[in-house]
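Need a sequence for this fold. Nothing fancy.
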C-alpha cells in the first residue's frame, strides 16, 4: 500500500515563487528552489550555508510568505517562514519580493541586526563583499530608534592569522559549524544567551587546525578578518584571479586578490550566493597553507580572471568575465518589462510623449500640442 502511494506521488513538486513556477525534487527547501530560479527572487541568507550541516534558522533574513501551503491544502501559512528551513510542498505558492509583509519584516530584521553592529564600513575589510552591507543598502533606515548603549568588545587576536571583532558579529553560528565540521576538535561556541551572547574566546584554540581560515570565508560580516590582508586594500581595488596549485591538504583551487603582481589575499572561490564553490559535489574549502603562506604569484598556476557572478561592488572593476545576476523581474510581473511598471502613460494623460523613444533630450517643443 505504501508503495502504491509512493508511485502516485509526483516525482517533482511544483512550486511558484513570485509568480515563477518551477519543479523541484521533494525535500528541497524554499530557499534552494528560489536559488534554482536565481536573481532577485532568491531571499538573502545570512546564517544558512549549504556546505555547513545544521546551519540556518538563526537570522530570519530569509523570511518569505507562503500564500498557499500546497495543492492539497491551499490555505496560507499565518506567519512568515524561514525559507532556509522550510521544505516546499507540491502546489505551494511563495511570495518574496512580491510581498509587502516580507519586505517590511526584512527591514525589521536588518534593523535588529544593526542594533549593535557598528556602521564602520569605511574602515572594515569586509566592505564591498559584506552581506549585511548589501542588506543595509536595500532595507536599512536612515536613523536608529535604539536608545541603549551598544555592545562593544575588545578586538581579539585569534592566533596569528585571524582577528575577531565581536562588535561586528551577528551570531550566525557559521564559524562554529566550520570549527565543528572542518577542524578536529571544536573548542569554541556561543556563550551566554540573548543580549549577552558572544563567540567564546576559546575560538583561539581552534587556530592550530589547517582549515581554521575558512571561518573568515564563511563570516557574512567583518567579524572574522584575515590579518594578513587587514587594512592593506579595498577589495574593489584588487583584481581577483583564479589560480590553483597541487596541495596535499585541500583542493588547491583559490582566488588570488592581486594588486599588480602582488598577491594581497588568498580566498576560496565563491559562488553567486557567496558560498565556497563545490568540486565534484565536495565543498572547495582551502587549507591555511594555501591561504596564508602562498602569497607569491609563482606559487600558483594562474587560470585567468575570476568571474564575479555575485551582485558585488567588485564587479565595478569591469574585469573580464563579469556575469550579471539573472534578471527575473519581467517574469515576476507576468511578462511586463520593468520600464513599463512605472509607465507614466498609464497614470497621466498630461504627458503623452514616450520620452525614452526620443532621439535626444526632451525640450518644451516636444510637449507642444499638435
Ligand atoms: S564571527 Fe562571523 S561567522 Fe562567526 S557567528 Fe559571528 S558573524 Fe557569524
Ligand atoms: S538564512 Fe534562513 S534564518 Fe538565516
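Here you go.
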Amino acid at each position: 500500500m505504501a508503495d502504491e502511494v509512493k508511485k502516485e506521488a509526483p516525482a517533482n513538486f511544483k512550486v511558484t515563487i513570485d509568480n515563477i513556477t518551477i519543479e523541484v525534487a521533494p525535500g528541497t527547501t524554499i530557499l534552494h528552489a528560489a536559488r534554482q530560479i536565481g536573481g532577485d527572487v532568491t531571499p538573502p541568507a545570512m546564517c544558512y550555508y549549504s556546505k555547513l550541516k545544521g546551519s540556518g534558522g538563526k537570522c530570519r533574513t530569509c523570511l518569505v510568505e507562503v500564500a498557499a501551503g500546497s495543492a492539497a491544502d491551499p490555505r496560507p501559512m499565518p506567519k512568515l517562514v524561514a525559507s532556509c528551513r522550510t521544505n516546499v510542498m507540491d502546489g505551494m505558492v511563495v511570495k518574496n519580493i512580491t510581498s509587502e509583509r516580507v519586505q517590511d519584516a526584512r527591514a525589521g530584521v536588518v534593523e535588529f541586526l544593526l542594533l549593535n553592529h557598528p556602521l564602520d564600513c569605511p574602515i572594515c575589510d569586509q566592505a564591498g563583499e559584506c552581506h549585511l552591507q548589501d542588506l543595509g543598502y536595500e532595507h536599512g533606515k536612515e536613523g536608529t530608534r535604539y536608545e541603549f548603549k551598544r555592545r562593544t568588545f575588545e578586538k581579539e587576536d585569534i592566533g596569528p592569522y585571524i582577528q575577531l571583532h565581536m562588535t561586528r558579529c551577528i551570531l550566525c553560528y557559521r564559524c562554529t559549524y566550520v570549527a565543528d565540521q572542518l577542524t578536529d576538535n571544536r573548542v569554541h561556541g556561543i556563550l551566554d544567551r540573548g543580549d549577552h551572547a558572544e563567540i567564546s574566546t576559546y575560538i583561539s584554540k581552534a587556530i592550530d587546525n589547517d582549515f581554521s581560515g575558512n571561518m573568515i570565508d564563511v563570516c557574512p560580516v567583518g567579524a572574522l578578518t584575515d590579518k594578513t590582508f587587514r587594512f592593506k586594500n579595498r577589495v574593489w581595488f584588487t583584481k581577483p584571479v583564479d589560480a590553483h596549485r597541487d596541495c596535499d591538504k585541500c583542493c588547491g583551487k583559490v582566488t588570488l586578490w592581486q594588486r599588480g603582481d602582488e598577491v594581497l589575499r588568498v580566498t576560496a572561490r565563491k559562488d553567486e550566493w557567496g558560498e565556497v564553490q563545490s568540486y565534484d559535489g565536495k565543498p572547495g574549502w582551502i587549507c591555511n597553507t594555501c591561504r596564508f603562506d602562498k602569497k607569491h604569484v609563482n606559487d600558483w598556476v594562474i587560470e585567468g580572471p575570476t568571474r564575479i557572478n555575485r551582485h558585488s561592488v567588485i564587479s565595478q572593476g569591469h574585469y573580464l568575465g563579469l556575469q550579471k545576476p539573472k534578471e527575473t523581474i519581467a517574469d515576476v510581473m507576468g511578462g511586463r518589462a520593468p520600464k513599463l511598471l512605472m509607465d507614466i502613460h498609464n497614470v497621466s494623460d498630461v504627458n503623452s510623449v514616450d520620452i525614452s523613444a526620443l532621439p535626444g533630450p526632451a525640450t518644451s517643443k516636444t510637449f507642444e500640442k499638435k
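For context: Confidence is low (pLDDT under 50) at residues 1-6.
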